Every structure is written in C-alpha cells, then in structure tokens.
Amino acid sequence: MNIYEEIRIDHDKQRELLDKLVDTSGDTNLRDQLFKELKEELEVHANAEERHFYKPLITNDMMQEKARHGIAEHHEIDELIEKLEETDYDSSAWLKTAKDLKEKVEHHLEDEEHQFFQLSGKVFSEKEKTTLATSYRKYMKENIAV
User: Fold this and answer.
1) DSSP3 helix / strand / coil % (the chain, rounded to 5)
2) Which of 77, 86, 96, 146 has the most CB atoms within 10 Å of its CB?
3) Interatomic CA distance for residues 50 and 1, integer angstroms
C-alpha cells in the first residue's frame, strides 16, 4: 500500500463516524461512545499525517503552502472538538457544532484527496510513498486505542 491508500482508509472511517455521530440525539451512551471514538481517530490521524505526510512535504516549494494549510485545518478541527467537549450532549448547540465539525472534516478530506494527493504524488517517489505508508500505519497502530 502507498501513503494515499493508508490515509484514505482512515478518511473513510472518519466519514462513517461523523455520519453516525450527527444522527444521534441527546445525552446518550451512543453519542458519548461515537464522539470519543471520533475524537481519538481525528487526533491520532492528524498527528500521524503531520509527521508522516506533511512533514516530508513542507520543505518542498510547491507543497509548502498546501502542507501549512492542511495543518491549519487540523487545528480548526481541534477547536471544534474542544467546543464539543465544553457543551452538554443534550444541548441543541452540541448537534450544531457536531454538524460544523462534520462539514469542516469533510472539506479537509476532500481537499486532501482531490488536490493534495495529486500534487504530492509528483513530489514523492514510489518508494517514498510505500515507506511513508508503513511509518504512517505503524504510528496509527501504536497510538489508537480502539
């Protein structure tokens, strides 16, 4: 597998968790479980992506701005997660923020998959793509509890 295939596996999992999360209502065990799982998935994924995908690209002139933008979006996602943690599950504001999070994450994933992957594919060699995939997946396995 290459780095793009590895990242897409996690992107698909994030989309699925987001869909399930925004379909929940009230202060329920299901909402709590899905939110905690999504939070961990997004956090570990962002760290893995920044270390094993963005970092090797940030020194490339063509990719530097894109890499910085991707990292900035990770921080925006973190802020929405923090806002959700500070809001009661049964508040209407919680669901609105969860939907904002879904929109932000999906926008970020689309940017990566439809622009960033293609451009970075011109920077990485085939060997680099598989080496990065291995280090990315290793990091994910070591840091995700689920």
Assistant:
1) 80, 0, 20
2) 77
3) 19
The two tokens of residue 122 are 């011109």
Alpha-carbon torsion, ordered 52, 53, 54, 58, to 10 deg? 90
Each residue's pLDDT tens digit, 110-129: 999 999 999 999 999 999 99
Q: Cα(33)–Cα(118) distance, rounded to whole angstroms?
A: 35
Q: Which tokens belong to 12?
A: 């698909």
- For 90: left if phi > 0, alpha if psi spans -120 to 50, otherwise beta; the answer is alpha
Q: Which two tokens stand for residue 21?
A: 């999360």
Residue 65, burial from CB neighbour count under 10 angstroms (0-12, 13-18, 19+): exposed
Cα 62 to the center of its chain, rounded Å: 22
User: What is the pTM assigned to this prediction?
Assistant: 0.94
